[in-house]
Amino acid sequence: MRTERYREYTLWGHAILQQEDILRPEQFVGSGTITRDTKVIAVSGVLGAFGTDDEAALAGLAWCRAWVDNHG
């Protein structure tokens, strides 16, 4: 998970391990959560599958920044 402050919001980029078969490479799904103070403002769904946890978390943060830019 990665977090950052953006404008007056806290953004959370999540990476969730998805491994259906032990013989297949690890995959991570990404998602994002936006909070302001202690309240959840918006949550993405699954944003896609990624090869690394870092890529998944960064996709979550990108979704959050786009949401804030369009709604903030």
What are the key terms here?
72 residues; alpha+beta; 1 helix; 44% strand
| Extended strand count | 5
- Oligomeric state as shown: single chain
Order of helices and strands: EEEEEH
Portion of residues in beta strands equals 35-45%
By helix and strand content, what is the structural category?
alpha+beta
Cα distance spanning the termini:
23 Å
The rounded Rg comes to 13 Å
What overall geometry do the principal axes of the alpha carbons give? elongated
Largest sheet: 5 strands, antiparallel
Description of the structure:
- The protein has 72 residues and is of the alpha+beta class.
- The protein has one domain (2-71).
- The protein is built from one helix and five strands.
- It has one helix at residues 53-71, and strands at residues 2-6, 9-18, 27-36, 39-43, 49-50.
- Strands 1, 2, 3, 4 and 5 form a five-stranded antiparallel beta sheet that branches.
- The chain starts with a strand and ends with a helix.
What can be said about this structure in brief?
The protein is of the alpha+beta class and 72 residues long. 26% of the residues lie in helices and 44% in strands.
Task: Indicate the topology.
Elements: E1 2-6, E2 9-18, E3 27-36, E4 39-43, E5 49-50, H1 53-71
Antiparallel strand pairs: 1-2, 2-3, 3-4, 3-5
